[in-house]
Design a protein that fits this description.
Two copies of one chain form a homodimer. By secondary structure, chain A is an alpha/beta fold. The first copy, chain A, is 32% helix and 20% strand.
Chain lengths: 314, 314
């Protein structure tokens, strides 16, 4: 994140919060990642908001539009920018609310930033001004076939759609995903990809592996002592070129990692967080209640950055 | 208005608008005064908003509260302050909307400031931060018995209430009017009182007279050549002490003023506005469609200040 907002201390009140963006397409795992962070830090320290409510139109109005709700033109991007800047300055905002059940824009809610603010959504890294609000930016980048299966599973079980409806919607959104959602990957400090490891035949219950692209745009903890550089280890760090040619550290956390090995890495990051007590047990909880060490390690890395940023600022 | 907001030019876009506040109690004539200004300048040059929509609660929730909707605690004052500051900086806001028919908080609206912004409402001059947003501040101060009759007439004919209901509501609101609405008079550059002239027996169709307190907080046009200083004239200017003891120029425009005399004053102010063409015919229109020269002269004076301020800024 090269361009940071020049922040003003909020006059007479509070301090400016540490701002974390979690961007990604629909059903890419944003809420699952966010919830563990809120539970670990406590809702009294962390405000979590979703910025998918800045729609210009309700569902009925939108049906006559040439684009889906993903399109920036379908959203009050300027107001989203303004609200993110205000939150970054420690100010409250009256955030619009889109009711996903009825498709209506309803009564807005007051959002007051606490010590940490997590902003998840489809477009939080869309513009220069939104990006300038964040201290840490994450992009969730699962392989498309995994994301599709997550979306179908979620929308048919908890949102009342049929498989055909979800697939049709995925089709309608594809060109706008490509044009507006995926380009945000470019602006992330950390790109997270949960996926099965290819060329292995792990049992179906094996958690997905995580590949974390740790870009040099922020300072990552030195994990070389606990994470090897060899491909043959269950967890390793690898210097490579990103899809855009830029150098990046890629950390692989394999789903079949042993509890001992993941425990060592969790402990190593947790020690750098310099927090007392054990690693928060909420970390790594999936939406179905199962657990994933690659997810827990991803969340620990984000906790490290959040607390590091808070220390640096104050 | 001694404390003005330090304004930033909006990056790359537009200029900051001239901001006018029109404060006053319910049914004190805010909308009538505002509408003539918007018609005279044109809605493409002037944005008019009402700031009575920042309620924390809908009607049902409020019924359990110890105060009415007038009370600052019943409103997101901090968000109103923020929105006024943003508008003053030339930025759009997503303004909350309270539906007076249903008593519900509904879908917010985008408000984009044009060259001039009129902000009318019950509490626009309530706090130091709201006041700092305005270039010109007006307080409407009709005698209570006149305001009561206006409110009863309006709420029974266009809002579906009975006279008894309106009177009960006036009673419920009285202590909060006293505590929060009327103190705003203190912060106005111009205090406007429409009232009949006492000790006269004008026919019932005679428009109300206007008494305009022109405080030295802003620079008023020199009208001494057209408005005499004698009590005996239909229109006069008088140096006196305000109710708080501060010196003030009081301009009286009597409702029985002759068309010739009011025409002279209108022309004199209009010339200082330095606008071509005739005085805008929309000025002076009352809510029932009748016309009032004291209202037209009040609106002309405000037009003078709006255009003067726009010239001074650019």
């Amino acid at each position: 994140m090269p361009h940071r907002l020049i922040r003003m201390q909020r006059a007479g009140k509070g301090r400016r919060p540490v701002m974390l963006a979690i961007a990604g397409d629909s059903a890419s795992g944003k809420t699952t990642l966010t919830q563990g962070l809120v539970q670990a830090l406590g809702p009294d320290r962390m405000t979590a908001i979703c910025v998918d409510d800045y729609h210009r139109h309700n569902r009925r109005e939108r049906s006559g539009q040439p684009f889906t709700a993903l399109h920036p033109e379908a959203n009050y991007i300027e107001i989203m920018e303004q609200h993110l800047q205000l939150l970054a300055m420690g100010q409250p905002v009256l955030k619009p609310v889109y009711d996903h059940d009825t498709g209506e824009l309803i009564r807005p809610v007051l959002v007051e930033p606490r010590e940490f603010v997590v902003v998840e959504g489809l477009l939080p890294l869309h513009s220069k001004l939104t990006r300038a609000s964040f201290d840490i930016a994450v992009y969730l980048d699962p392989p498309e076939e995994i994301r599709r299966s997550w979306k179908i599973k979620r929308d048919t079980t908890t949102r009342g759609y049929t498989r055909e409806q979800v697939e049709a919607e995925l089709g309608r959104r594809e060109s706008e995903s490509e044009a507006f959602i995926r380009p945000q990957r470019r602006w992330a400090d950390i790109v997270v990809r949960f996926a099965p490891v290819t060329k292995r035949h792990d049992p179906p219950e094996t958690p997905l592996s995580a590949e974390l692209m740790l870009r040099p745009t922020i300072e990552h903890p030195d994990l070389s002592a606990v994470v090897g550089e060899s491909d043959h280890r269950a967890m390793h760090l690898k210097l490579l070129r990103d899809t855009d040619g830029r150098p990046v550290d890629a950390m692989h956390v394999h789903g079949y990692v042993s509890e001992e090995e993941s425990g060592l890495v969790k402990k190593a990051i947790w020690d750098r967080v310099a927090a007392d007590g054990p690693v928060p047990p909420e970390l790594g909880t999936l939406s179905d209640g199962k657990r994933s060490d690659p997810l827990a390690i991803t969340q620990l890395l984000l906790l490290f950055h959040l607390l590091e940023e808070a220390r640096a600022q104050h």
